[in-house]
Amino acid sequence: MVNENLFNKLIRKKKLIIRPLLFFTIIPYLTFICIIAFYPKYFGAMLFNSSVSIGIILGLMLIIIIWIITLLYVYLANKHIEPIINKINNV
Amino acid sequence: MFKFFTSSQSSDLNIVAIWMFLIFVAVTLYITFWAAKKTQSTSNFFTAGGNITGFQNGLAISGDFMSAASFLGISGLVFLSGFDGLIYSIGFLVGWPIILLLIAEPLRNLGKYGFSDVVSFRLDEKPVRILSAFGSLSTVILYLIAQMVGAGKLIEILFGLPYITAEIIVGILMILYVTFGGMLATTWVQIIKAILLLSGATLIAFLVLNQFDFNLNNFFNEAVIIHNSGSGIMAPGGLISDPISAISLGLALMFGTAGLPHILMRFFTVSDAKQARRSVAFATGFIGYFYILTFIIGFGAIILVSNDPAYLSSSGQILGNNNMAAIHLAHAVGGNVLLGFISAVAFATILAVVSGLTLAGASAISHDLYANVIHKGANDKSQMIVSKYATIGLGFMAILLGIIFEEQNVAFMVGLAFAIAASTNFPILFLSIYWKRITTRGVIIGGSAGLISCILLVILGPIVWVDILNNIKAIFPYKYPALFSMTITFFGIWFFSITDNTTQAKKERALFDSQYFRAQTGFNKERKVNH
After folding, report:
1. Rounded alpha-carbon distances, angstroms, from residue B432 to B106, B264, B419, B435, B483
2. CA distance B277 to chain A (A)
């Protein structure tokens, strides 16, 4: 059945896109939380003699990572997933 | 008659604030009047006809998230202890990619008004909807109490209105928005407020950084010099005392967002899964930006508010409490006009958020409990009437609870709401979408165990058992229960599903493939809407 082949392709592509993005969301966040939990002092160290600590820089970077992940997913989904879904719905 | 505009505490009533607020109320009531004409069916009442665009929905979602509690609370937390505020912000934000990658599209494709539609898709509707309604209502009511009490206190300080008057104004306006304008009015109220709040916060942050010529190094340096903890504010501090608490809080924030009923129901206001995706991307952008602003505002308040006698009591404490840091800062950088503007925005924020919460609660009552359990097969008209009564009931309950809890510390309630969402709503939603072997028995036992353990652990923990009930030592040593209650839920669902070999369970598993197909493709949607 055409539908079934297309569907398998859809799921394959979705997994290919979602799994790495999920990984790059959860792992940096858990690392962040674990550093707070186990090595809070480390986050207090200042960056290059400035008054901005490593914790704050990494926190802001995490916000930027989250932005990138959502934008990347929308871009990839529109480009690679949406066409397959449209095909399935029109079969 | 109430002492309506006579001040109970401060005498310098802010005229700008009152005018701004009255304009907001006038505009939003006009929108409600307009929306009422378009809100004639239950579906319109809960989904705004499904015609909201991804961008609009993104703003509305971020509006739901940027409550007065999170604007004032997080900037207050940053003001108090610096870095710790960032832990909350990031935790709240990281829930969004989770929703986007795992929940948003299947939710939109399988459901009609709320996440309970998804969970009951192939499981036994009656018990599953009752459990989902309990999960939704407990989250909504806890959130509502926290917002109402915060609202009353804030309005008391900002507008000089008596606490009870403030509760009644908020309650009545919210009832008007929701009963007459349904989701359409609630969404537009939320969008307007989101724009106002983002502009106001941007302006404060801009004016603060402007004083430092946008040199962040000098900015943080100044804060470190002024704050009592010195460079301690640049590192994790007292918020999290041990690793278990850190991880437990982290989990509640990350997965709780994906289980908040008033957020999840917003995905039904857009036309399809594609727009649902776009909404999340916009929402994440706005919310992340907003948290960066609150961080700057908190640090700005350390520098400009904590040493200025105008904002301190005679004993050197900040006037009001730490949550007033952003409000005082608005005055410090923008005078009475900005103070008035931000006060009005804070009031508007509260109204918008409680409206969204009430609508989610009304949906659980009328759609889950009434139309699918109590009176199966109820027609659209009676469901609509029940929805409106439920809204009015929840509104008066919110006023009443707001008054009852006036003197209580309610800050923990938002945390508990997130913990419940993460330990009940999220696991049952997530597993019913992705796990073939789940059965009704597993969902009911696992989900209830998670809900009950979550509430019990908070009651037995330090916040309620020690701080509120005045016992000496907590029975459960950690403030945040999610690590334990989530484990209980997932284990419970897993164990009681895999050991379930009834014919009902076999039937439920057999339906998985077609459900999965529809979750991923949205196929068959028309038939669902008409059935």
Report:
1. 11, 15, 19, 6, 21
2. 6
Residue with tokens 């995706």: B277
Name B5's Cβ contacts closer than 8 Å, sequence gap at least 6.
B13, B18, B160, B161
Q: CB B243 to CB A44 under 8 A?
A: no
Tell me the nearest-neighbour CA distance from B83 into chain A, angstroms.
7
Question: Model confidence over B175-230: pLDDT tens digits?
Answer: 999 999 989 999 999 999 999 999 999 999 999 999 988 888 888 888 888 888 87
Chain A neighbors of B221, CB-CB under 8 A: 51
Mean pLDDT over each residue of chain B, to the nearest integer? 87
* From B70-74, B268-272, B358-362, B525-529, the region with the lowest mean pLDDT: B525-529
- Asked if A51 lies within 8 A of B221 by C-beta distance, the reply is yes
Which residues of chain A make contact with B108, given a CB cutoff of 8 A?
none
Whether ipTM exceeds 0.85: yes
* CA B332 – CA B324 distance, rounded (Å): 12
| B110-153 pLDDT, tens digit each | 988 889 999 999 998 899 999 999 999 999 999 899 889 888 88
Q: Is the pLDDT of residue A78 over 80?
A: yes
The total of structural domains in chain A comes to 1
Written as six digits, the tokens of B31 are 């929108």
Chain A residues touching chain B at CB-CB below 8 Å: 7, 10-11, 14, 18, 21-22, 25-26, 29-30, 32-34, 36-38, 40-41, 43-44, 46, 50-53, 55-56, 59-60, 62-63, 66-67, 69-71, 73-74, 77-78, 82, 85, 88-89
Q: Does the structure show a pLDDT above 70 at B531?
A: no
CB contact under 8 A, B274 and A78: yes
pLDDT category at B474 given cuts 50, 70, 90 is confident
User: B410-447 pLDDT, tens per residue?
Assistant: 777 888 899 999 999 999 999 999 999 999 999 999 99
Question: Residue A25 is part of which domain span?
Answer: 2-90
Domain positions in chain B: 15-530
Which pTM was predicted? 0.90
Cβ-nearest to A66 among B220, B224, B284 = B284
- Using CA atoms, how far apart are residues B480 and B144, in angstroms rounded to an integer? 20
Is A74's CB within 8 Å of B94's CB?
no
Class of domain B15-530: mainly alpha
Residue B86: list chain A partners with CB under 8 A: 55-56, 59
Binary contact (A66, B278; C-beta < 8 A): no
> Measured between alpha carbons, how far is B464 from B409 in angstroms, rounded to an integer?
9
Longest dimension (CA), chain A: 65
Q: Are B168 and B399 in contact (CB under 8 A)?
A: yes
